[in-house]
Amino acid sequence: MKLATIKDGSRDGQLAVVSRDLKTAQLADGIAPTLRRALDDWAFIAPQLEQLYRELNQGRGRRVFDFDPAHCMAPLPRPCQWVEAAAYPSHVELERSGRGAALPEAPGDEPPMGQGGGEPLGPRDDIALLHEEWGIDFGAGLAVISDDLGMGATADQAHQQIRLLMLVNQVALRNVLPDELAGGLGPLQSRPAGACSPVALTPDELGDAWQGGKVHLALRASWNGKLVGQAQAGVDMAFNFAQLLAHLARTRQVRAGAVLAGGVVSNRGGKRGYSCIAEQRALELAAKGRAATPYLAFGDSIRIEMLDGDGKSLFGAIEQNVAQAVAPVDARRGR
Amino acid sequence: MKLATIKDGSRDGQLAVVSRDLKTAQLADGIAPTLRRALDDWAFIAPQLEQLYRELNQGRGRRVFDFDPAHCMAPLPRPCQWVEAAAYPSHVELERSGRGAALPEAPGDEPPMGQGGGEPLGPRDDIALLHEEWGIDFGAGLAVISDDLGMGATADQAHQQIRLLMLVNQVALRNVLPDELAGGLGPLQSRPAGACSPVALTPDELGDAWQGGKVHLALRASWNGKLVGQAQAGVDMAFNFAQLLAHLARTRQVRAGAVLAGGVVSNRGGKRGYSCIAEQRALELAAKGRAATPYLAFGDSIRIEMLDGDGKSLFGAIEQNVAQAVAPVDARRGR
Fold first, then answer.
1. For testing the chain B interface, which of A81, A159, A185 should be mutated: the one with the most B CBs within 10 Å?
2. Could you say which residues form the signal peptide (chains A, B) (predicted)?
3. How far apart are the first and last CA of chain A?
4. Choosing among A151, A176, A190, A248, which should be mutated to test the B contact, i.e. which has the most B CBs within 10 A?
């Protein structure tokens, strides 16, 4: 099934079931007011949502409305755990070479992974930041939402607890990153709020494309209307989502509603374009000694989408404009 | 006022107002069912909670019950943002020297800070982990809970948005940390779930001890009943909580309910004992060439508390036992 969270002025929004073709939706308020509540008791709530989903797809829904991604928050607007892996070695290598950092040692048994902030934006919210000079980059990827998972769980066990998938735009501030990484505590300021696709879907919606804990479809990234990337998300992924979740669970109880993003999707050799600008710049630097492609400018737009075998959008599109934010006025200083 | 969250089997618990002397409490369900809800609309909710708090302290409460920290969850069990700073340079220096890492460069203008996981335990919950060999350490510190704070806010603005303070036990796995830090994405597995004091309190409860965004009182840490640390939290803190929050807000909207932990409290020279074992081991290593004090063993207990000028507990005590966790049984593998 496909789920979305509709903006209603509250911080958690309202849970809605969305039709498979993304055309219509129906509030799930009689079942669970928010996705958080649904995830809190998934085994009990999910079958009821599935029933609503079936009725909606069969044209038997009540109080049906046209689905509009512009009215969506992130499917889970306030996750308590937001973890970011870097499961595509090709991205890690390019990102590092682009900033002149040492390449990682031979890929080990452990996936690169760090804590992130649980503050995802809706799919049409602006990427609003104070300064272009921070080196604003997009980052197209996939994320899973987990159910409860015990400490020390195996990858097999983790696989069974993957409840939902969604697309993410993992925004990065490339010019803020190097100083921050030198501090050793991981990216913080250099990873501002990202965004999620309009819809989160259960793995069965992917059919055969969900295999071995990976999504075997292309992730399309467009910049100012031009398609710049269509990397295969199931290719060159060194750790699948089940392995990533098991890594997270090694020393902690993973709680229902934890979000784990797999990292910027990246295929070796750059043949299928790029899912973040840093990769393109690294390739230019290596080929011509100079990174020609600039980072995002205010007014730019980014679109991230995944199509099924029939060319139909699975998650709806993330479509964000880059905008200049304004710092709050300090009343005491008059600015 | 003092607030706590009472265990009721749900994931967010029930909000209660606790008397100043920590003896009695009263559910706030008529006002806000959870602390999250209260923080979502603090300007409207807080005055009502304050009124309940006054009545409770005056012996005019209704449905009053004895306050028992054993029934508490963390005051905010599921924060969406959990950030950990390292605001005490003495801790950073000792922790690094203890593992043979280079000392940080001359303290800069930027506080060390990284994302953490929002999964705090209650004050009496076990520190349950799979292996002693991970090098289980406690870490006594303070944390603030923020209201909404705009991107680019000043420290003055941030100071006005500090709503609550609490004690935290920032548990660390010292033998897992070095490999993880080498990866560059910050601590993840090496920072399992920590714990919070029974009570979160508004800054006014601290009276004159809340000055300049710091808490000018000693933080007491006991290990198996023996007092091992009583560092002054207001001394040797290089960045106050307002500055720390402003750092977090530089590239993001901080949302109500964000938790920012200041790091392990540490005074220079070790004269007032230690707030984490790693510091003691580093001092031993420097003095005798060998770290004699072991990390925590299963069965050990840790108590963290802060007393006011009259010797009364302000937040209640964190009292945790270290226990061996058991990994979930994998039905397919029969283990």
1. A185
2. none
3. 48
4. A151
Contact criterion met (CB < 8 Å) for A153 and B328: yes
Question: Shortest CB distance from A81 goes to which of B119, B130, B183?
Answer: B119
Q: ipTM, 2 decimals?
A: 0.96
Q: Do A185 and B86 touch (CB under 8 A)?
A: yes
Are the C-beta atoms of B136 and B129 separated by less than 8 Å? Answer: yes
Residues A32 and A86 in one domain: no
Contact between B150 and B249 (Cβ < 8 Å) = yes
The domain boundary residue, chosen from B50, B70, B90: B70
Please name which of B166, B204, B208 lies closest in space to residue B82, comparing C-alpha atoms: B166
Q: For residues A55-71, give the mean pLDDT.
A: 96
Looking at the fold, whether A201 and A58 belong to one and the same domain comes out as no
Domain encompassing residue B62: 2-70
Nearest CA in chain A to B194: A252
A202 and A307 part of one domain: yes
Mutate to test the interface with A, among B73, B78, B113, B170 (most CBs of A within 10 A): B78
- CATH code: domain of residue B174: 3.90.850.10
Question: What's the CA gap between A76 and A15, in Å, rounded?
Answer: 9
Find the closest chain B residue to A172 by CA distance: B251
pLDDT digits over A69-119, tens only? 999 999 999 999 999 999 999 998 898 888 888 776 655 788 999 999 888
Chain A positions touching B104 (Cβ under 8 A) are 183
Number of structural domains (chain B) is 2
B114 assigned to some structural domain: yes
Q: Residue B225 class from Cβ within 10 Å (0-12 exposed, 13-18 middle, 19+ buried)?
A: exposed
The 10s digit of each residue's pLDDT in B178-211 is 888 888 899 999 999 999 999 999 999 999 999 9
Per-residue pLDDT tens over the stretch A13-33: 999 999 999 999 999 999 999
Residues B92 and B229 in one domain: yes
Does residue B334 fall inside a structural domain?
no
Cα separation, A258 vs A229, whole angstroms: 28
